[in-house]
Structure formats: structure tokens, C-alpha cells
Design goal:
alpha/beta, 15 strands, elongated, binds S-adenosyl-L-homocysteine
């Protein structure tokens, strides 16, 4: 099976016709595959509930309930979130009796790294984590000489069926817990070179973060807690297909994070074809919600726009896009389409991309073109689909 075809469909569905042919891409190397048992392990069950994902206050209350002073819980939080330590036996300043008690009743983290793929320069690394009940979620570590970005998953699979996205083909899976989202970041932190500690977080992996609202917001509040070696909120971006009620909720309740909207088309007709969610939340509903978020946060919004040959990449399309975002403090992030397998979608020729960019430049506040890192290892935007699940099972 082709690696970008998800080896597992989570919900039954019919592939659109353009998903049927076979496409060839460069084979990548799986450089490490640990022999991890997939499937609910009785050991994991025995380990009880996950401490990862609990707030310092919740851990303090738990310590009290175990006849320990509250500060023991806060020490535990320091170990987990500040130091990224997931092994209770290494938390040496906690009393042994307390550690034993915790060990018997709880676990810290649930993810098992089962496979990874890296570009030869190691700047991009896609890591597949096994979930306790089986299935894989993927996270991507991306680096430039000055910047590190972790792309985290929020769900296993995705129910929104965007036509261009590999995760969308898996169908709806389950929400990840706050602990599972934070754990991806804690594990990717270990990839940072010595001396580096600052990183950005983008919720642009598998899943729709705003559909898993509570767990995502809890995870982000833990990751951005200044008491726990935080990532500043302005370094965190939530990317959404455009769930309008949740955008309002986010703007009103937690106007701290950056927002990115997967737009990809400037008319309802085209957007509804590419993204079925547009039939529920059309542009006339989405754009006021985005404006509300910009006003509440004082931060400009990013519009992601995949350039697909002939489909949405003409100057006429660019002109519609300019009109749609007029008067809105925004950045347009153009993503030349990344192949996700068989299909009729193509990446435009460089000249067409250039023409689109040149048209936008004087007419919108900012434009960037994101040539995704990691295309050759299936780690680029839209390519995450738990494709390594087969290899992890072998
Ligand atoms: N569900 C959220 C989070 C996933 S983000 C969202 O849609 O925003 C993943 C980003 O990669 C989105 O902007 C998505 O539209 C884009 N993407 C998906 N498939 C792609 C592909 N084949 N090529 C380039 N970008 C893609």
C-alpha cells in the first residue's frame, strides 16, 4: 500500500474518484521502529489514570488526598511540565513512599514512539506515536537555524473530509486527551539541540483542534503556563477549518493564541467543494467570526491557502481573495499543494505561484509562501495520516 494512503479508515466512507489511482513518490526510510505492542495493554490499564494533563492545582489536591503536603503535587508538576520527566522513579526529590503510591495508581503519559522519519538534514522529523488502544498519531518537529516549531495533533483521524488532506481520508477518530497533546510537545522537546529551549507550537497536525476544544485549551494552558517553563501564548497557533461558534468562544474566553484559518478558496461554491464544512459555516458566517477574533486579540489572523493547479490559483481567484480579506489585519500563507496520493490535484508550476504571489503582495498586509518542509517524508501539511500504522504492527 502506498504510504500516504491511511492504512486504517476510522469511519466508513467513499473516496472521491480522484483518490483512486496510484501515485509514485520517493520512498522514505523508516529509521527506527521500536517493537511496541499496539492494542490495549493490560499494563497500561494497571497503571491507571494519566497524571499528564492535570494542572498543578489538581496535582496538589491529589497529593493532599494521598496524605502528602500540597507542594508535593506542585513538585510533580515541575517534573512533568518543566523538565519533561515522564518516569516517576526519576523524580528523586519526591518521597519514595509517595512515588510508589503514584506508580501503583497512575501513569505519566501514554504515548509510545513507534516510528520516525527524518529528512537527511534532520531539520524535519515526523514522529509516530502509538495510542494506548492502538492507532497512531503523528507529530512533526521542524527546525531552521533560528526557529523550532512543533506541529501537534489534536485528534486521531479527522471527520471533516477536506478533499486535499490525507488525515481527512481516515475519517473521524477520537479526540486526544489534554495529556496526549502536551505529551507530544514534551517528547519533541527532547529533539531540540543542546542550549535551545524556545519553540513554537502549531496545532496543524492530525485533527481539528476546535472540535476538541476543551482538551486543546487545557493542553495549551499547561504548555503556556509561565510557572512551568512556558511557551508564550503568542508562539502558539491554533489552525481551524472554520468552526464558527468555537472561534467566537475562543475569542471571548481565551483571546491569547494566534488563529489560522484554513481558507483555500474565496467563494462558497469552490470552498464547499474542497471543504464540506463550508456548507455548515459559509464565508458570510466565517469572516465576521474571524474579525471578532482579530478585534478581541489585537492579533492579525493567518489565512492558509493551498495553491492547487487550475483550481484556485488564477489571478481571478487571487482578486476574489483580496476582496474577501479586505480591511482585515491578516497574513496570507500560501501553501503549494503537497501530494497526498492518487488524485487530480496538482501543485501549480512555479510561474503560476509567482504570479499569484505578485498579485497579492501590494494588495494584502502580508503574504508568505510556505514550501512545506518534509514533503519527501510525508511530514508536510496535509500528509499526516498514520500511514506508519502498518509498519508499527509488523
Ligand atoms: N484541521 C485544522 C488543522 C490541520 S492544519 C485545519 O484544517 O486548519 C493542516 C494544514 O495543512 C491546513 O491549513 C490544511 O488545510 C493544510 N493542508 C491539508 N492538506 C494539504 C495538502 N495536501 N497540501 C498542502 N497543505 C495541506
Amino acid at each position: 500500500m502506498h504510504r500516504h494512503c491511511p492504512s486504517e479508515r476510522l469511519t466508513p466512507g467513499v473516496h472521491p474518484p480522484y483518490h483512486n489511482a496510484i501515485m509514485s513518490v520517493k520512498p522514505e526510510t523508516i529509521i527506527r521502529t521500536e517493537n511496541v505492542r499496539i492494542g490495549r495493554s493490560s499494563a497500561a490499564d494497571r497503571q491507571g489514570s494519566d497524571l499528564l494533563g492535570s494542572t498543578p492545582e489538581e496535582l496538589a489536591r491529589m497529593a493532599l488526598a494521598l496524605d502528602q503536603p500540597a507542594y508535593r503535587g506542585r513538585q510533580l508538576a515541575e517534573w512533568i511540565y518543566r523538565r519533561g520527566e515522564l518516569d516517576l522513579t526519576r523524580m528523586t526529590n519526591l518521597p519514595a513512599a509517595f512515588r510508589d503510591r503514584l506508580q501503583a495508581e497512575h501513569r505519566v503519559g501514554t504515548l509510545k514512539e513507534t516510528a520516525r522519519r527524518e529528512t537527511p538534514d534532520r531539520k524535519t522529523r515526523k514522529v509516530a506515536f502509538a495510542l494506548p488502544e492502538g492507532g497512531l498519531v503523528e507529530s512533526v518537529y521542524m527546525s531552521t537555524p533560528t526557529r523550532f516549531t512543533f506541529c501537534l495533533s489534536s485528534q486521531h483521524g479527522c471527520g471533516f473530509s477536506c478533499r486535499f488532506c490525507a488525515t481527512g481520508r481516515m475519517g473521524r477518530g477520537r479526540n486526544l486527551t489534554a495529556g496526549e497533546i502536551v505529551e507530544q510537545a514534551l517528547r519533541l522537546r527532547r529533539e531540540l539541540p543542546p542550549g535551545a529551549s524556545d519553540y513554537n507550537v502549531v496545532l496543524m497536525g492530525m485533527g481539528e483542534p476546535l472540535e476538541n476544544y476543551d482538551a486543546v485549551l487545557r493542553a495549551l494552558s499547561l504548555l503556556s503556563d509561565p510557572a512551568l517553563g512556558a511557551v508564550p501564548a503568542k508562539r502558539i497557533t491554533i489552525s481551524t477549518v472554520g468552526l464558527v461558534p468555537q472561534i467566537y468562544r475562543l475569542a471571548d474566553e481565551t483571546p491569547r493564541y494566534r488563529l489560522a484559518i484554513s481558507l483555500h478558496a474565496a467563494t462558497d461554491e469552490l470552498r464547499s467543494k474542497l471543504m464540506p464544512v463550508n456548507r455548515t459555516f459559509p464565508l458570510a458566517a466565517l469572516m465576521p467570526a474571524v474579525r471578532h477574533h482579530v478585534e478581541r486579540t489585537g492579533r492579525r489572523v493567518t489565512f492558509e491557502y493551498i495553491l492547487i493547479e487550475e483550481l484556485n490559483d488564477s489571478v481571478a481567484h487571487a482578486s476574489k481573495l483580496v476582496k474577501l480579506v479586505a480591511q482585515l489585519p491578516c497574513k496570507i500563507n500560501l501553501i503549494p499543494y503537497n501530494p497526498i496520493g492518487p488524485g487530480k490535484f496538482r501543485r501549480p508550476e512555479p510561474e503560476r505561484i509567482e504570479r499569484f504571489v505578485e498579485y497579492l503582495k501590494p494588495r494584502v498586509p502580508a503574504v508568505t509562501v510556505r514550501y512545506s518542509q518534509g514533503v519527501e517524508i510525508g511530514a508536510a501539511c496535509g500528509q499526516l495520516a498514520g500511514a506508519a500504522e502498518g509498519s508499527a504492527r509488523n
